[in-house]
Amino acid sequence: MSRLLMVWVFLAIFSYVFASTEVCTNALLPGAKGDQGETGEVGEQGKLGKNGPPGLPGVSGEPGLKGEVGPTGKMGPFGDKGDKGLKGFTGPAGLKGKTGTTCDCGRYRKVFGQLDVSVEKLRKAVQFVKNVVLSVKETEERYYLLVKEPKRFREAALNCKLRGGALAMPKTSTINRLMADYISQTGLARVYVGVQAQGRDSNGTGRYLYADSSPLQEFAAWSQEEQLQPGSSPSTNSSCVELLSTGTWAHVECETTLFFICEFPKSRRRGGGGRGTPAPAS
C-alpha cells in the first residue's frame, strides 16, 4: 500500500513539473540578422570530376548540301549472263520489190574472165619484182631479204626492225638451207643472222636466244670447230652469230661489220602486199 502511494506522489510531481509553461534553460537565443558581407575572391579551380552518365540523344540535324561527284572507281567484275528475253512481235512485211531485169550472163562471164587474166598478169609482175628486182626469197609464211649494207650486229637488227621485220632466224634445217643458198647465190661468204648468246645456263652451257627472244631449241648448225667446245660460252664480244654460205654457224664479234638477212611475215590480206612486204634495200 505504501508503494502505491509513493508511485502516485512521484507521478503527481512529474506532471506538475512538465505542465509548467516556464522552462528554465541555458540555451542562447539567436540575435537579429546582420548586414551582407563583401564578396570573397574567386577560389582556385577544383579538380576535374568523374564523367557523368551520357545524356539523351539530341535531335537529328538538317541534311547537308550534296557533295561533288567523286572519281570513278575501278570496273567491277562482269555479272552473270542474264536470261534470254522473250521473243518480240513479228514486224510488218516490207514493200514488194521491183521486178528484176534479165541477166546478160554471157557478157559478165567475159568481163570476169578478163579480170582473172589481168590479176594473173599482176601476180606474175609482183613475183618478178620480188624475185628479180628485190632478190627476195620466200616460203609459205615469210619473205627473206639479203641487205648488202655492212653493219654491226645491233645496227643490223635495228635496220631490219625499221623495214618492218627482224634479223632472219634459221629455226629449222629447211630455212637454214634456204638462207645458206641465198648467201651463196649472191657471191657472199657470211652474214649476220638473228641468234645471239645470252650468258650461261645452270649446267654451264651457253644460252642462246633468237631475235624474237625465243630460246634456241632442238635445231642448231654449229660448225665443227664450235662443236669441239660444247660446254664453253662465247665471250661478250663474240656473242653474236653468223651464217656461212656452207650452212654452218659460227661466233663472231658483235662489232664486226657484215651484210645481213632480214625476214618479214607474209600479210594475211588477199593479194599479198600490206605490212608483210619487205621494204626495198637502199
Automatic annotation (TrEMBL):
GO terms for cellular component: collagen trimer; extracellular space. GO terms for molecular function: carbohydrate binding; growth factor activity. Residues 139-263 form the C-type lectin domain. Residues 34-81 are annotated as: Disordered. The keyword Glycosyltransferase does not apply. Residues 1-19 form the signal peptide. Pfam families: Collagen, Lectin_C. It is found in: Secreted. Keywords: Calcium, Collagen, Lectin, Secreted, Signal. GO terms for biological process: ossification. The keyword Calcium applies. This is Collectin subfamily member 10. It comes from Kryptolebias marmoratus (Mangrove killifish). The lineage of its organism: Eukaryota, Metazoa, Chordata, Craniata, Vertebrata.
